[in-house]
UniProtKB/TrEMBL annotation:
Keywords, alphabetical: Metal-binding, Oxidoreductase, Signal
Limits of the Tyrosinase copper-binding domain: 93-317
Keyword Transport found: no
Any Pfam family the entry gives: Tyrosinase
Extent of the signal sequence: 1-22
Database matches in InterPro entries: Di-copper_centre_dom_sf, Tyrosinase/Hemocyanin, Tyrosinase_Cu-bd
Name of the protein this chain belongs to: Tyrosinase copper-binding domain-containing protein
GO MF term set: metal ion binding; oxidoreductase activity
Amino acid sequence: MVNAIVSLAALALSALPALIEAAPAPGLGPAPWGPSFFGSPGKYPPCTEDRIKIRKDFDSMAPAERKAFTDAINCMMTKPSQLDQTLYPAATNRYMDYAVTHVNLTQQVHLSGFFLTWHRYYGHLFEQDLAEQCGYTGAFPYWNWPATADNLRGSAVFDGSEYSMSGDGIYVDDGPVVLSPFLQLPHGSGGGCVNTGPFAGLQTTMAPISIDNLIAGLPLPDTAFQLNQTCLTRDLNTYAAQRYCNYTALYEALDTDDLLTFDQLINGVIGGAELGLHSGAHFIVGSPASSIFVSVQDPIWWPLHAMLDNLYTSWQLRHPDLATAVYGTETANNAPPSANVTLDTPHPGWGYFDPNHYTIRDLISTTSGPFCYKYDVAL
Ligand SMILES: [Cu+2]
């Protein structure tokens, strides 16, 4: 299928130059974790061993815990939207409020200096909300890309059972996935509606938005938040999994000793014919999960981004002298042009989910500031 769809890949291929030019901040020496380093000393209790939450590999969780997680997501979809329905008809419930909020901020929080920390806090907000709205206090799971790459449809994540994140879409042969003149992927094993597992029959509400908007820094189209209901689709793509999300790629990213290279290895390199690990993972799932604006509509988004955060966290742990490095500007593809971020740059917020404009410094460590979690296994 010619994915007019808004690809992370097209992005990866064509939108990075401004970011590449934005030099990473020099290392700040040994990570100065401690109350005085953070912007709001005393605002949060210290993250101690008895408080810390452990995020787990979805595959390693007991079936009942996996189901509790997906039950909570389905519960979130029964909670009313808090958004103005005249402005956001696509916000049909509280879950879709998250998806709408992500669309609203896409142009600031991708291909920008906010990418890693904004998404880290966004996942944290959703994790907290699952507890507050729906009583889920289990582990926040990550989807281990390389561990599942050789057997997507047999993995606990995608086997389609009631304990999975739902399976593949039904098979629809609509040709290769064309991302750009330089890059296409063979069609995956699905393409149609997801009809197995906890999200069978899920209705998405927002149509994909052209990637050109992001690259050029254009406003969202007027139709962005119109109600556009259709079934959730997936097209599981083993080619993308094995090629872009293998262990060699993972360790290359973990080993690199600068944040710019790390970003290129997760998001791709301009002019290249390769996806990075993060964009590759979105293309393992297919549309709408491969759409940079509206991907949150597929609940696999949360375990996918928990894995990205695990990768970032593990990189910080492996390179403590670089753990507070930042780079990038305040706008996607630096369009329109904007300043390089620093540790003290405030984020653009998270819509109504949190009106605070935390700085990058506030969100740079998973065991300080508002966070107190770690991953079961450091990558
Ligand atoms: Cu995003």
